[in-house]
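Worked example 2:
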Amino acid sequence: MTNILEVENKIITLREQQVILDADVAELYGVETRDINKAVKNNPDKFPKGYIFILEPKEKSEVVENFHHLQKLRFSPQLPKAFTEKGLYMLATILKSPKAVETTIAIVEAYAKLKELSRVIIEVPQHEDDKDVQQSLLQRGGQLAAELLSDALPIRSSETSLELNLAMLKFKHTVKRENDDEIRQLKERLEELERKCL
């Protein structure tokens, strides 16, 4: 099952927009990249400007350099396509398999929770004079962070504490995991989430 953190890990910022590249969309949907691109090519009227764009060569180099999971694009002769949130919603109307439906729900949830978490973080300092409102916002931010993480943190045998510090919001979540490699990967995902939200 596709979880929110798995989707969140694929969201990158390009041209001041949060997008997911075609190769990552294909991975999330359990299809080949060519299938995603074929769906776009066969339905051009469903992907107007603002729904999808093709990366420039310089942008491709930057994403390959800055995002470890996109190293697979290094040797591809094709320029990747970037799907905006609208483009992903439209793609969901074309790909109708059970996996596509499940993934679309995870994508919608991830975008919504990341947006709300960003709004909460921005709003906290604006209510310095009203501690009750500020406390309520901090609690909501902690709840959103917990929701973003909960699907990816199965309870196992050893206990580990992870801390996420987002501006004025500090979130601590203790989980039990048995594999040190999983813990390292989770910490890397948390660091990426922290960078996206600041």
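The first strand starts at residue 12 and ends at 14. Residues 151-162 have pLDDT under 50 and may be disordered.
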